[in-house]
Amino acid sequence: MNDKFYITTPIYYPSRKFTLGNCYTTVICDAVARFNRKQGKDVFFLTGTDEHGQKIALSAKEKGVSEIEYLDEMIADAKALWASLGISYDKFIRTTDSYHEKAVQKIFKKLYDKGFIYKSEYEGLYCTPCESFWTESQLVDGKCPDCGRAVAPQKEEAYFFKLSAFTDKLLKLYKENPEFLQPQTRVNEMVNNFLKPGLSDLCVTRTSVKWGIPVDFDSKHTIYVWIDALTNYITALGYGSDDQSLFEKFWPANVHVIGKEIVRFHAIIWPAMLMALDIPLPKKVFGHGWLLFGGDKLSKSKTNGAKECIDPRVLVPLYSADAIRYILLREIPFGSDGNYTTEIFLNRFNSDLSNNFGNLVSRTLSMVKKYFGSVIPEIKELKENDDIALQKDVLDEVKNTFAFMENYDVSKSLMSIFNIFTLANTYIQKVEPWAVAKDEAKNNRLAVIMRNLLEAIRIGSTLLQSFLPECSNKVLTALGLDPSANFENLDNFNGLETGKILGETGILFPRLDIAKEIEKLSSLAE
Ligand code: MSP
To answer: DSSP letters of 430-481?
Structure first.
């Protein structure tokens, strides 16, 4: 077994406050990172911020502060948001960190020395007020897509990366290793839209963008923000510095998780750069879909005409980090888009978290209190089909959870875990413990049922820890277990200590009055 696991989120543009949509990639990576740690693997989970380029310089200017003042404030806000959501990253990289800037310059020079970067002229349609080049196809009604003003053809001295030299190598990569990029639909997109028509060389410096890393041997040029940004995945591990030990230990990454709109950068430009540098490729790039708000990727605060609150800074304190993590992880099906509305969120809160999970835990703990004085009953031989079936079905869902996680299908994995709680609830309805309790002669059966329920809750909560850490830790603690332990006893119903006294969890997810909450959230929407 490979006991190392390196996972990355994209580094975020702090050009505006992070949205619920931005939280999606980070929360997925967090769940995957935690799940791998629980398997005893040595995990390195990287996130950070992408801080150069025109957009950042403009945002700072609008606020009337320096770029770095602007960035420091945004990064503090981002870190506070990640802390509130329980994001367990191992490193937060900022592309303005000096070790990163130095390594990017070294990488650029190395590519130049190897002949993969050359000097030429960039020709494009230039918008002077925006200081931006555009291609014909990017224009809107023949005008600058950002400000709507006229553009004019202009030339600028620039360096180019020989991307065209990698078309065949990348086609070979996708032919021999289709698993490199997932889901599969994204491979077809890359191959048919970009690789088969042939790649063009990529302009990788600007003289007009001042807020960027300068080319150290030609300082009027700054390095294209995507070249700077992509290298974070290796500079964060010390590549290009005096201490490369983390790079040697963790590279190649197991997976870069990214949104579908930036697949081209990660699945074409990044592998080409790595090939040029003779560095092994990451094992996988996973391009997830979007969380849509009123059909849009950007957090519009209106869906279906109603005002919606979609600010994680408001939602987390109101409903808990676990509830927000749940909706993000559950609502977007594998690789495709998913819709967010306040109503969908609140309904899931009530039906899945409060009813299915919360109620199961509270009713089971109170039954064990009532019938066994909160003492975990001992394991008895199973005689009834219902008792045997519960164990088998739960252990099948454990296997499903692992299988889905193997493919980064977090949504299905989470569904399998919740199926465990559904199975336990259905079991209660079927075996009617309250009826069994009335019959003294069936005392053994009552112990079997209670132990079965407690073990099912233990198994489900253990798996759930990576997804919803707060509530599942509470449950495991109440069951007398150490929440920091790695996965154990997930293939049997014998993980609890007989005779131990159960603790309490309190109400895990108090049931919400949906109409009232919708009104409240609408008044809080910006
Ligand atoms: N800075 C680049 C990434 C460079 S990586 C070398 C960038 N940043 S971003 O802030 O615009 O986006 C960061 C991530 O947030 C992307 O993966 C993007 O897909 C994700 N999301 C932003 N809004 C989203 C949704 N509404 N839904 C899901 N994820 C989306 O791109």
So the answer is: HH-HHHHHH-GGGHHHHHHHHHHHHHHHHHHHHHHTTTSHHHHHHHHHHTT-
